[in-house]
Design goal:
Layout: H1 7-25, H2 31-39, E1 43-46, E2 59-64, E3 70-75, E4 83-94, E5 97-104, E6 107-116, E7 119-127, E8 132-135, E9 138-139, E10 147-153
Length: about 160
């Protein structure tokens, strides 16, 4: 069977094919970026969006560059922990948990984030050599991890 396509049909077919190619190869396209978007963690976060960055009110931004690579930037008012860190192996573990790996200050970490309503908390953080920094939402000193809210989404 031979299909006959008129000029209008050919133009539609060409536009559909072009849109598919652009979507598949466009900026910010990656499984890691898609997982962050789906989980609602792509953007700028803070404990209190109305206050400036500080050690008590860290601001962090999960962003995707043009090649699809993901990073997390941290601002705490100019203290030693400020910086931008590569993030990879992002996986949604359930409706309320996301896991990713990150490199910071010469160490690699596996981090699990818990979503509670519209806020996010570090739930588990383990270094590649097995040191547990956060377990069940508590730091090693027993203090609860901070709860971050979305201040603005990234494109």
């Amino acid at each position: 069977m031979i299909a006959v396509i008129n000029r209008e049909g050919a133009v539609r077919l060409l536009l559909a094919a072009l849109a598919t190619v652009l979507t598949a190869s466009g900026a910010n396209a990656s499984p890691n970026a898609d997982a962050l978007r789906q989980f609602g963690m792509l953007g700028h976060f803070a404990v209190d969006c109305g206050r400036p960055p500080s050690i008590f009110n860290p601001h962090e931004t999960f962003a995707v560059d043009a090649s699809g690579a993901v990073s997390r930037s941290l601002q705490m008012g100019g203290v030693k922990g400020d910086g931008s860190f590569p993030v990879w192996n992002i996986a949604i573990l359930g409706h309320d948990r996301l896991q990713y790996e990150e490199s910071s200050n010469g160490l690699d970490f596996k981090i699990t984030v818990l979503k509670i309503g519209n806020r996010f908390r570090s739930w588990l953080s383990v270094t590649t050599d097995g040191r547990i920094l956060v377990r069940d939402g508590k730091l090693r000193n027993g203090q609860d991890t901070q709860s971050f809210q979305l201040c603005g989404e990234s494109a």
